[in-house]
Amino acid sequence: MSEAAVATPTRRRVESTLERVVENNRFTIAVTFPLVGVALLIAGRQGLLPAGLAMNPYLLIGANLVMISPLVAGLVPLIDRRALAGLAVLALFTWGIELTGVLTGLPYGEFSYGLELGPMLAGLVPLGLPVFYFPILLNSYLLALLFLGESSLPRRFVLTLSIVITLDLILDPGAVALGFWGWDTPGAYYGVPAMNYLGWLLSGTVAVSIVQLSFDHGAVLDRLEECGFFLDDLVSFLLLWGLINAYFGNWVPVALALGLAGTLITSDWFDFDVL
Q1: Out of 15, 213, 242, 262, which residue is the most buried by the measure of CB atoms under 10 Å away?
Q2: 125 is in which domain, residue-wise?
Q3: If DSSP states are collapsed to H, E and C, what string results for 237-271?
Q4: How many domains is the chain built from?
Q5: Model pLDDT for residues 87-121, shown as the tens digit of each residue
Q6: Count of alpha carbons within 13 angstroms of residue 119, beta-carbon side
Q7: How far apart are CA 44 and CA 112, in angstroms?
């Protein structure tokens, strides 16, 4: 039996409170927040907001924490020692691979951050990077598990990694257009070089492997089937970055976002009551 299954009364109260808050505010978190985020990000990029408000890193982190709260609330009951250790290793890997990328140009190509997204580690990469990086990996893992169940590890691994790459194909063009980061030599894919995605194949392989080793897949699948909001953060992601890319005319990422959203909405898991 996992530690999560024998949680203390205090832990159960915290989990219950978090779940109730998310459940009672699903539309606000999954739809309203990303819509407001799109408006503020575009207004900030166009110079329509006061300097202290436009692209404020702490507002960005705070808004992102709200949007990932369904993922956190869904995941917390599943966190045991193995999962906690895996997430710690994943955080170290996230900072390490990003620092390597900024310092050496490998494996993503020579890039740099255009904005300080909160406190910066060594002045080069955001200290809060896991807040942005973890949801891409974990939502990809959850979606793959939703469709494949506890099927063979190779199939689940390949699908998870494919979704990770797809989400980055959606994210990077919008982030580049907003000035979050960029490459010294822009690539053909909306300013993103092909090397970035080769790098994601490498780093994603390591990161997805860590995720696969960190969780009890049966317990995650059970939680996914009973928790109606577990993938709401993915809804927020697709809505936010789909609209941002649409504003800047990045139509391939828009098509990818619509495709993933359609796949999610037509699945047996999706609950239309949130809308």
Answers
A1: 242
A2: 3-274
A3: HHHHHHHHHHHCCCHHHHHHHHHHHHHHHCCCCCC
A4: 1
A5: 999 999 999 999 999 999 999 999 999 887 888 88
A6: 5
A7: 20
